[in-house]
Amino acid sequence: MAGSCDLNWEDPKITTYPGNPHPLGAFYDGHGINFALYSECGTRPFLCLFRPAHDATHELVEYARIKMKERTHHIWHIYLPDFEPGQIYGYRVHGPYDPQNGHRFNVNKLLIDPYARAITGTLEWDDALFGYDVNDQSPEKDLSFSTVDSAPFMPKCVVIDSSNFNWGGDTPLNIPFHETIIYELHVKGFTKLLPDIPEEIRGTYAGLAHPTTIEYFKKLGITAVELMPVQHFVTDRYLKDRGLTNYWGYHTLGFFAPDVRYSSSGTYGEQVLEFKRMVKKLHKAGIEVILDVVYNHTGEGNQLGPTLSFKGIDNSSYYRLTEHDKRFYFDYTGTGNTLNCRLPNVLRLIMDSLRYWILDMHVDGFRFDLAATLARELHAVDRLSAFFDIIHQDPIIGRVKLLAEPWDLGEGGYQIGKFPPGWAEWNGKYRDCVRDYWRGQPSMLSEFAERFTGSSDLYFEERRGPTASINFLTAHDGFTLHDLVSYNEKHNEMNGEGNLDGESHNRSWNCGAEGPTDDVNVNQFRDCQKRNFLTTLFLSQGIPMLVAGDELGRTQQGNNNAYCQDNEISWLNWEKADQVLLAFTQKLIHLRRQHPVFRRRTWFRGKPVKPGEIDDIAWFKFDGNHMTDEDWQHDYAKSFGVFINGRGMQGRTVFGVRVTDDNFYIIFNAYHGYIDYTLPGEEYAKDWTLILDTSKDEVIIEGDEGRIYQAGEKITVHDYSILLLHHVVPKKEHATAPMV
């Protein structure tokens, strides 16, 4: 049972020096440890030191509580000579408890250092974690004050030696955006059931770096893994009480600390070394590491949430509080709070965190969750906000991959297409349009063509290229690809919320039966639809993002919001993997990587690049004639052909040679019947080789033979399918060096 905190506790005789205000956090310099903590309104911070108890439990006990007396520009600091890495610590901060004016200091609560590089243990939910008395029966119980010590239930910070790792010459891969293929995955879920790696490292950073895992990535052909949140996070109490957990990890507590739950080697700083080894091995395999980061809110919730770190260090200096009553929090994220990116100390925290992951952990980029929140100045989203200004001018952060989820839950939060140059965006309009097209919705042809060619309607006027669009069909939230073609409705009953959580409008189609079925025709149709989606994704201009398991036919049994399911619902089931679909996906990715015409850096212009040449792109009806403006507007039109000119690119190699490629003709048919297509005339190509038909499960790649069709010949495209035809341009006309 936790007791109250004694402010008059006498410290043992520990030598202390004033220390320095920088760097923030705990820094080991080879002779001792400097501690620095930002708290503008706090009056008496205490550095609390812990060590394992001398008994069978080895529980961490607080053995010293040292008052921090030195203060420089709102930063409290102290230096402990002769202390070494591995020291376990936390903070307590004394100050006014005045929630209505935004202050929630409570010295009885142990607090995580916002700059902690490592955190040991996880949160053990208890009433002691709250700054107020949770048993108070008044409607304003958060105004009450708790005197119970929270330390026994809190994770603790660990001092590390950041120089204690040999990177062995590891350098950034700097894979260009137009060469990038992103693979979104969950560290635990990807290898938890992978039988070919040792059981003790499944679901960990080490599991992701195992040779079996890396070989899978290489054969698949992806160039970057996008890891769902790995910064130390907390699980909501209501989930824990229902026997569930925060599987996805979108409730960050430690923005510098790799989450200890994914460590197989230890919890007292070993997780940092294990993460670094993972990055090093992935880089050696030519694979970049992108982190999904959540700087828009923390895991402390609203006024009724626990006091774990920021809330007790200096609530009003970290969070956006309502003007009329600072007891309450602005919530643009649906999680209870929003970090205040208008404040210099919060911006510094975010930028310091990003630089740390780049310089110390060697990651290659970031995907910013609910990124529109970070750009809110007063209330509106401002693309000229301080957040973007600072990132744009930063020589470290500005050179890595920056990906945005371009929306939040606040008013005016849908900001797709409005992020500055240099950013790529999750293109939600691409996802919605492609889903609608392949379920046969009317009036989709024109928008589908726009999305397929890079969404110039969203990005062209901002002087951004097709690579501003991250094209995706599924993501961690929502249906898997298999479930997208197997369910009309969500089935989230296992989440314990009466199936009320999760998106209800999924633009999905079960192809004739809800969920698993023995109907052969339905299953064959579903397989065809999966091939349609994947083919569309990897032939589209922009940056493709594939969700781990979609290439294996992974199902979540209709659950489209598996955020709390740390079990077989979310983990990849390797024993039930669809090997045929995997082989199809591997060949598709190989095709994309072999042909620069599918990954242009510049927009199609609909005209020749040079006089006397044919257009870089041309659109056709089934009769071989060009599409007219009127043809695009027919609500019943669900099919078209598109010619892509391999000599219609404007890119050059690193040696200044013009980039060219073969020609391709693609026929899309989302109509419910067969259509006979007349191929274009000889000015486009004298003959064509059929290399892909999604009504079948084969992709013909170089070295194989496909059926040859002559210009003007008829070819039949099945209902709900794609044909891809290839015309080889002599290799001597191609540039072979990398594009610039």
Automatic annotation (TrEMBL):
UniProt-listed GO biological process terms: glycogen catabolic process
Keyword Hydrolase: yes
Annotated Pfam families: Alpha-amylase (PF00128), CBM_48 (PF02922)
Top-rank lineage group of the source organism: Eukaryota
Stated name of the protein: Glycosyl hydrolase family 13 catalytic domain-containing protein
Source species: Rotaria sordida
Domain Glycosyl hydrolase family 13 catalytic, residue spans: 184-592
DNA repair as UniProt keyword: no
Gene Ontology molecular function, alphabetical: amylo-alpha-1,6-glucosidase activity
Keywords, sorted A to Z: Glycosidase, Hydrolase
InterPro entries: GH (IPR017853), GH13_cat_dom (IPR006047), GlgX_Isoamylase_N_E_set (IPR044505), Glyco_hydro_13_N (IPR004193), Glyco_hydro_b (IPR013780), Glycogen_debranch_GlgX (IPR011837), Ig-like_fold (IPR013783), Ig_E-set (IPR014756)
Gene3D superfamilies given in the database record: Glycosidases, Golgi alpha-mannosidase II, Immunoglobulins
Family from the record: Belongs to the glycosyl hydrolase 13 family.
